[in-house]
């Protein structure tokens, strides 16, 4: 009997400090089940072990241990909640910084492309206005047009796309109307000519297309084809 009491007194599960040691060993990664199991073993040992005066179960010790268990459970729950809040805050921070990084990269890319658009315009003007007459001129023409083609392909790989405004409904988010022309050949608000091509990078408009927009014909005016037909009769 004495040996049993001696064994119980030195059993780590019956020592209230055993539970605290679990917390001290790893203050972050605490297994809730291990602590509860250790606490239950401590209470059970206290209930089965006779007190020193031999009067039966030491209720004061059991009550004290139960209070300690309740306190430890509260600490564990608080630390678990803190851990979940920290994890959630970190995940939100990671998503926010990733989004800001992508937006910054897109902004820098767009600003760089805007500076290159006048170069593209000059290549296109040269292609439409210069008419090579000799073989040497044609060689030069093909050389700089190959550079233009390479530049356009690079812009496409970056996600830049050119607008095709002519024939489309005028959209103030994409187009800039620099002229309005009364006409009966096109519906009102339709783009009938593009002066400067517009470009987009994804959903971002890098440059609005400068266009001429159809307006309703003026009162009293007739279609030129009808007038010429009447004159010939």
Short key terms for the protein model shown above:
single chain, 233 residues, alpha+beta, Hemagglutinin Ectodomain, Chain B, Nucleotide Exchange Factor Grpe, Chain A, domain 2, three-stranded antiparallel sheet, three-stranded mixed sheet, 6 helices, elongated
- The second-level CATH architecture of the domain at 66-158 is Alpha-Beta Complex
Instruction: Enter the CATH topology name of the domain at 66-158.
Output: Hemagglutinin Ectodomain, Chain B
**How big is the Rg?**
42 Å
Main sheet properties: 3 strands, antiparallel
Strand content: 5-15%
Distance separating the two termini: 136 Å
**Backbone structural class:** alpha+beta
Give the strand order of the largest sheet, numbering strands 1, 2, ... along the chain: 1-4-5
Overall spatial form: elongated
> What is the strand tally?
6
Query: What average pLDDT do the residues reach?
Result: 78
Question: What is the helical fraction, as a range of percent?
Answer: 55-70%
Number of helices: 6
Low-pLDDT parts are: 1-14, 224-233
**Helix-strand pattern, N to C?**
HHHHHEEEEEEH
């Amino acid at each position: 009997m004495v040996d049993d009491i001696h064994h119980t007194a030195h059993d780590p599960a019956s020592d209230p400090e055993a539970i605290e040691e679990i917390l001290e060993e790893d203050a972050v990664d605490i297994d809730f089940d291990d602590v509860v199991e250790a606490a239950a073993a401590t209470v059970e040992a206290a209930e089965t072990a006779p007190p020193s005066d031999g009067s039966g179960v030491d209720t004061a010790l059991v009550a004290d241990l139960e209070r300690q268990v309740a306190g430890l459970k509260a600490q564990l729950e608080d630390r678990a909640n803190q851990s979940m809040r920290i994890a959630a805050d970190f995940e939100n921070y990671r998503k926010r910084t990733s989004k800001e990084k992508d937006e910054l990269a897109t902004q820098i890319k767009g600003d760089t492309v805007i500076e290159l658009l006048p170069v593209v315009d000059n290549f296109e003007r040269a292609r439409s206005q210069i008419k090579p007459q000799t073989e040497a001129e044609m060689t030069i023409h093909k050389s700089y047009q190959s550079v233009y083609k390479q530049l356009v392909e690079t812009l496409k790989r970056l996600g830049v796309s050119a607008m095709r405004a002519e024939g489309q409904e005028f959209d103030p988010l994409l187009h800039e109307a620099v002229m309005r022309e009364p006409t009966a050949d096109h519906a009102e608000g339709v783009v009938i000519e593009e002066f400067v091509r517009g470009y987009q990078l994804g959903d971002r408009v890098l440059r609005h297309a400068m266009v001429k927009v159809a307006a309703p014909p003026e009162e009293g005016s007739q279609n030129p084809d009808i007038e010429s037909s009447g004159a010939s009769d």
